[in-house]
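Review form for a predicted model. The reviewer records the input and the model, then writes brief findings.
Reviewer: anonymous (R2)
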Amino acid sequence: MDRSGTAARIYERLMGPRADSVLLRVTLRLAILGFGIHLLAWIAVRLGTIEVPANLEPLLASPLLALYTPFSILLVYEVYQLIQAIPRSFSAAMAKQYEVIALIVVRDALAFLASTQSADASDGSWFLLLGAKCLAFLTLLAIIAGFTRIETRPRESGDTDTRLDQYVRTKQVIAVLLFGAFIATIVNSLSLWILATAEGEPIRLNSGIFFSDLFTFLIIADITILLISYRFTSDFGSLARNTGFVLSTVLMRIAIDTPGIGAPILFILSGLVGIGVLWITGRFMLSQIAQTN
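Model under review:
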């Protein structure tokens, strides 16, 4: 039985153009609906029409927090696209990781502003943390743009076409397995959140929910791809690039659970490692090609 062929068909059904188009439409509708419901709930609480349990009050403390719901829904779709990009190239998947992190930073910055009290705004550390979040977002945007401009694909000879096809099929297997872990993580995180909320635990607006487990799986997937790549290429530039990308993902994972100003600093460092590795190895591989021609 051709397992890679089966995985390719499953990948096409779950993450092909048709599935992506359907999920995009569903995501946009859910994001708009979620934003509307959240905003109406805030208005109702503000007018005294409804009363909510004390543990839900942080979620309805400001109209800015109404953006938290659609951003969270859009983040799920961005993660889906991240997994979808894995078979295409490691670089494309890394660019998607930075897009996910950029949205997380924006969402957390909005939640940070919404929870600000007048006394907090007069504190110098508050401005420092807000500035760090904004700087992290701008840096990640620049890095995402850089990933789309830097060409790192050397010309392959015809002899490697079969091996490259095998490599892509292997990554499709990893993408399908990661998609299963992605769905399981969503179900588990949502169930735990609902259970904790029903038991009266206060809502915490942080990125540790869902994304900590997700990036742990991403690290496992990245390391697996790195090890498998040794079977298909001995080129040092490619191996160094993939190793650097794994390091960047690990830094993202640590940043998600890091409190205070440490998180945006680690996000920036992660992005700089990724773009630096991409640029250096890209120049290295281009010089190698020039020497062989």
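Findings: DSSP finds ten helices and no strands in the chain.
Further findings: The mean pLDDT is 83.
Recommendation: see findings above.
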